[in-house]
Write a structure and sequence with these properties.
mainly alpha, 1 helix
Length: about 140
């Protein structure tokens, strides 16, 4: 038995019931394309606005970085001043050490003089007592 088509071929690109369906699909495709273009333009505007906001934030951060750099410079100046003060304190400390060494030397000299004087006084007193004992015949 030969193949016989179930439907008779129609004239046109599509069967009659398909023409309206294809027209609706074409209309949907055009409106979807237009909608996607509008969405793309809107998203581009939003991205550009976001980029401008980020650029403004970057400028603010640059200003803040400049302020931090200024503060760092001030701290460096203060550290330099403290280094100069430390140098002065070291010079004063060396001078005080020299004075302290001089005072220790003076103290040792005075202690030696006092001990020698005490020894001399004791010797003289012992000598006087010996002369007195000899004179009074205590021995």
């Amino acid at each position: 038995m030969p193949d016989t088509p179930i439907e008779t071929p129609q004239s046109g690109r599509y069967p009659p019931d398909m023409e309206s369906r294809v027209a609706i699909l074409e209309h949907l495709a055009r409106s979807t394309f237009d909608t996607l273009e509008r969405m793309e333009r809107a998203s581009e505007r939003r991205f550009e606005a976001t980029d401008r906001r980020f650029d403004a934030i970057d400028r603010r951060f640059d200003a803040i970085d400049g302020r931090f750099a200024a503060v760092d410079g001030r701290f460096a100046a203060i550290e330099g001043r403290f280094a100069a003060i430390d140098g002065r304190f070291e010079a004063v400390e060396r001078r005080l050490d020299a004075i302290s060494t001089e005072y220790h030397a003076d103290f040792r000299w005075l202690l030696g003089v006092m001990l020698a004087s005490w020894g001399t006084i004791m010797g003289v007193l012992g000598g006087i007592l010996a002369v007195m004992a000899h004179g009074f015949h205590w021995f």
